[in-house]
Every structure is written in C-alpha cells, then in structure tokens.
Amino acid sequence: MPADLDPVTRHPKAAKPGEPVGMHNATCYGCGDRSPHGLNIVNIAGEGFTVHADMRVEPWMEGGPGVIHGGLLSTAFDEVMGAVPKLVAGAAVTGHLEIDYLKPVPVGSVVRIDAELLGMKGRKIYTKGVAHLVDSDEPLAISHALFITIKGREHFSAYVENSQAADEYRPYFAP
Ligand SMILES: CCCCCCCC/C=C\CCCCCCCC(=O)SCCNC(=O)CCNC(=O)[C@H](O)C(C)(C)COP(=O)(O)OP(=O)(O)OC[C@H]1O[C@@H](n2cnc3c(N)ncnc32)[C@H](O)[C@@H]1OP(=O)(O)O
C-alpha cells in the first residue's frame, strides 16, 4: 500500500451506519436478491469506513467434511469487502484478493465478515476483512483486497447481454 494515501470522505449518498449498503446488482451472486443460487449476502454499513455481513454456513457450502469450502469463503470476503468502495467512491471491481485461512469454519455456524477501508490512492481502494463466528472475536480468516474504481457503463457494456437481467439493463447501456 502506498505511503502517500489520499484523504477520504464518506460519499454523501452512502448508506449510514446500520443501514444496508445497496446491492451491486440484483443478479449478483454475492449480494443479489434475484440470484437463484447466490449467497444473498446483506452488507451493513458501519461507523467510519466499515461494512459487515453475517452468513450462515449451509450444508451445500461444505468443502472438507463439516467445514466451509475456502473458495466460497473467498467469495464472501470479495462481496463484503467489495461493498467498502460504495462508502467512498461508487462502482469498483476486485483487482487483487488474498486470504490467510487460520481455522476451519464449521457448517451450521454463522460467520461474520468485518471489512474496513485501509486507504485509497487514485482509483485504488485498499481493504481488509476478518472472518469470525458471530459469537466470538477469534479470527478464522483474514483477507486483504484491492478494488479499482470503474465507470460502470463503460466497464460492463460489452458484457451486459450476458446478464440474467439484460432486458432491464439494456436501456441504461444504449448508446
Ligand atoms: C447506468 C449504468 C449502470 C451500471 C450498472 C453497474 C452496476 C454494477 C457496479 C459495480 C459492480 C461491482 C460488482 C462487484 C462484485 C464483487 C467484486 C467482484 O467480484 S468484481 C469481479 C472480478 N474483477 C474483475 O473482473 C476485474 C477484472 N479486471 C479489470 O477489469 C481491469 O484489470 C481493472 C478495471 C481492474 C483495471 O484496469 P484499467 O485498465 O481500468 O486500469 P489499470 O490502469 O490497469 O489499473 C488502475 C490502477 O490499478 C492498479 N492495478 C490494477 N490491477 C491491479 C492488481 N491486480 N494489483 C495491483 N494493482 C493493480 C494499476 O497498476 C493502476 O495503478 P496506477 O493508477 O497506475 O498506480
């Protein structure tokens, strides 16, 4: 992370502490409420530049016997940490995501991910996430991720026809 970070302020339209951060997209696998096989994560804005979300570890999320699949946990990190840019900048996509898995996360538990802004430089937004059980502060996994701000229309215009919601998006992407 660069030493000469930019000053950051909360976006005037950002969710207030305790409010849900808006979905990326209704058909987003992470947060969409119209993603039939998705995680349906609800990101909640916190104080400062933080976001958190709880996720019940369902049997279909299993990797090793009785514990969550690591790739699925990485999706949850990507989703919750990916909501942090919405507090400060708007649309952004993941450029880099890394995870240290410290302890298994049991099927049947409720895992909480706490995400925070570490800093911003130009289009680059540096974040950290910690996964723990809702009733414990012991970290089970720690993630660092870099998000890059984008212009949504430009970034997705070549792909929007692949969307489950292409019919609804088409008018917004019309030249
Ligand atoms: C009316 C309109 C309606 C619009 C509706 C839109 C609604 C939806 C809105 C938002 C949806 C968000 C959904 C989030 C879902 C959860 C998060 C995900 O899963 S996202 C999916 C996975 N990620 C990707 O698919 C990215 C694929 N990568 C790219 O597209 C490009 O590489 C991109 C955009 C990340 C950067 O490309 P460049 O050409 O724009 O910019 P460059 O110059 O390469 O990078 C900018 C700066 O970032 C650094 N950078 C880029 N990637 C880096 C990396 N991997 N590591 C370190 N630095 C990196 C570069 O070195 C550069 O730094 P220096 O400004 O020069 O200092």
UniProtKB/TrEMBL annotation:
<keyword id="KW-0276">Fatty acid metabolism</keyword>
<keyword id="KW-0966">Cell projection</keyword>
<dbReference type="GO" id="GO:0016787">
    <property type="term" value="F:hydrolase activity"/>
</dbReference>
<feature type="domain" description="Thioesterase">
    <location>
        <begin position="66"/>
        <end position="127"/>
    </location>
</feature>
<keyword id="KW-0472">Membrane</keyword>
<dbReference type="InterPro" id="IPR029069">
    <property type="entry name" value="HotDog_dom_sf"/>
</dbReference>
<dbReference type="InterPro" id="IPR052365">
    <property type="entry name" value="THEM4/THEM5_acyl-CoA_thioest"/>
</dbReference>
<keyword id="KW-0443">Lipid metabolism</keyword>
<dbReference type="Pfam" id="PF03061">
    <property type="entry name" value="4HBT"/>
</dbReference>
<keyword id="KW-0809">Transit peptide</keyword>
<keyword id="KW-0963">Cytoplasm</keyword>
<keyword id="KW-0053">Apoptosis</keyword>
<comment type="similarity">
    <text>Belongs to the THEM4/THEM5 thioesterase family.</text>
</comment>
<protein>
    <recommendedName>
        <fullName>Acyl-coenzyme A thioesterase THEM4</fullName>
        <ecNumber>3.1.2.2</ecNumber>
    </recommendedName>
</protein>
<dbReference type="GO" id="GO:0016020">
    <property type="term" value="C:membrane"/>
</dbReference>
<dbReference type="GO" id="GO:0006631">
    <property type="term" value="P:fatty acid metabolic process"/>
</dbReference>
<dbReference type="GO" id="GO:0005737">
    <property type="term" value="C:cytoplasm"/>
</dbReference>
<keyword id="KW-0378">Hydrolase</keyword>
<dbReference type="InterPro" id="IPR006683">
    <property type="entry name" value="Thioestr_dom"/>
</dbReference>
<keyword id="KW-1003">Cell membrane</keyword>
